[in-house]
Amino acid sequence: MMPQKGNVYVIDDDPAMRDSLDFLLGSAGFNVRLYDSALTFLETLPDLAFGCVISDVRMPGMDGIDLLRRLKKEPKALPTVMMTGHGDIPLAVEAMKLGAIDFLEKPFDDERLVLMISAALSQTDSTKNESISADISLRIASLSPRERQVLDGLVAGLSNKLIARDYNISPRTIEVYRANVMTKMQASSISELVRLAMRGGILKD
Description:
Arc Repressor Mutant, subunit A, 10 helices, elongated, phosphoprotein, transcription
């Protein structure tokens, strides 16, 4: 039998998504518990061991954002990863400001989720985390003033067109700056760029 890697608490109102994550994470060696709502999860929270929470953001009743607000008041600190719809960057930024350690855009890569959970369960090495943050700060410092403006717009959820209008330049020029930002920040997607911006201290509470 595969040794268990830790506890994972999955919260999603979609039964198919719960079943899919149960199979994926169980196969990866995690001890998985499923919840169909944030309220159901909170009812059991006092009795739960340390683990990683995986929650959808948009759910009926209490949504993922309200769940994060509740968790911030709890003495038991559980690393939380939020799942968002494609392109829901402003909501993801709000989630991270409220304490989510990371977020995934649906549909997401299975292997990446497993690695993300493993990292969340082992985030006790503060020296390593400080080193990573310092590296990200160096990437941000390598940006030109205009590239930094574009970065700020992107992580705020603005489109190329809106960023171009704000700075009175063409959308095509913004596309060039955007490509430079993605390369210098070593980000493969806008969601990853937002995560790096959070780790680099660009997005504050």
